[in-house]
Amino acid sequence: MKKSLLMAAALAALVAATGAARADGVVTIYSADGLHDGSPNWYQNQFDAFTKATGITVQYVEAGSGGVVERVAKETSNPQADVLVTLPPFIQKAAADGLLQPYTPAGADQIAADQKDSGGNFEALINNYMNFIYNASTLPDAPKTFADLLDAKFKGKIQYSTPGQAGDGTAVMIELIHAFGGKDAAFDYFKKLQDNNVGPSSSTGKLTALVNKGELYVANGDLQMNLAQMADNPNIKVFWPAGPDGKRSTFALPYYVGLVKGAPHADNGKKLIDFLLSKDAQATVSSVALGVPVRMDVQPTDKAAMQIHDAMNGVEVWTPDWAQVLKDLSADADRWHTATGT
Fold first, then answer.
1. Candidates 3.50.50.60, 3.40.190.10, 3.60.15.10, 3.30.460.80; correct CATH number of 2-128+253-309?
2. N or C: more exposed end of the chain, with fewer CB within 10 A?
3. Do 265 and 28 touch, CB atoms closer than 8 A?
C-alpha cells in the first residue's frame, strides 16, 4: 500500500511538472486583425520560426483593435496575455490605463523616437496607413471625393467599422475631422452618410469579403491588411477620397507592440517581441505582410514595397496628435453615435 501511494505521488508530481513545463513553453499574443491574413502570412511565418528557434509555442488570439485592449483590461486580476499588438489610439489607451509594462526590445535603437512610447511601454511593429476599399468589378473607378459617397447609388452599399471600437473605424473619424477641417463639418458629414451606411461593425477585416462579393461597394480598411487580402479578394482596390479642399490624405496607423503588465510568461513575451522586431523578421514585412518595416536599417526594394509606394502616390501623409486624439476619443465617439443614430 505504501509503495503504491509513493508511486501515485511520484506520478502526480511528474504530471504536475510536465504541465508546468508545457505552460512555461508558451507565449500568448493578443492582436488586432490584419497580420494573420493570407497564406502564407507574416505572423504565422514568424511564429513558426520563433517556435523552431526557441521551442516556445505561440498562442494567438485575434480581435478588433479596441477588443483586444478590452480583453486585457477585463483580465487584469488574472492576466492571460503576454504580448499586445494593436493600433493607435488603443495602444496609448492601454498604456494610460496601466495595462502595459515598460520593456526596451533588442534593436529598439533602430526604431525612430517618434514611433516609441516615451515611457517605454510600446514600440511600432509594422508601419501602416488608413485607406478605403471599393469593388472594382462593380465600380469602373474609385469614388473621387467624400461627397461622391453620398450619392443614392451607394445606399446600403457602404459600411465602415465603428469609431471608438475598431482601430480602423476610429481612423475614419480622425481622417474625416482632418479632411473637413473640423469636428462640426465632419460629424455633419457622418450624419448625411448614414443614409447609405449599412450599420456598425466591430471588425474592419470582415468587411473586405463583403466588398469583394459586391454586397458592399465601399468600406474602410488599412493598407497593409487590404493589400494582403487582395490575393483572396481580387475585386477590391484601395483608394483615398478627397476632402472639400480637393486633397487626398491619410496618416500613419502603425501596429504597435507592448508587453502586458502581469504577463504570465513575461520572459517569453520579451523574446517574442525581440524576434518580431529583429532585422531578419523586419526584412520580410513588405514582401510577406505588405507593410512597411519600422527598423531604420531595413530598406526594402521588393515588388511589394514598390506596390505600396505606387498606391500612395499623390496622397498627402499627415500626423495626428495622438495624445489629443486619446483625450477626445470618448467624447468624439459619443458624438459620432449621436450624429449617426447608432
1. 3.40.190.10
2. N
3. yes
Mean pLDDT, the chain, integer: 91
For 242, list phi and psi in degrees, rounded to 5. Answer: -85, 150
Helix-then-strand count for the chain, H and E:
12, 13
Q: Give mean pLDDT, residues 317-330.
A: 92
For domain 130-251+312-340, give the CATH number. 3.40.190.10
- The torsion defined by the Cα of 109, 112, 118 and 122, in degrees rounded to 10, comes to -80
Under a CB-based contact definition with an 8 Å cutoff, are residues 229 and 38 in contact? Answer: yes
Residues of the chain with CATH 3.40.190.10: 2-128+253-309, 130-251+312-340
Q: Are 130 and 172 in contact (CB under 8 A)?
A: yes
Alpha carbon 269 to its chain's center: 19
- What cell does 253 get? 496607423
Q: Is the pTM of this model over 0.90?
A: no
pLDDT in tens, 183-209: 999 999 999 999 999 999 988 889 999
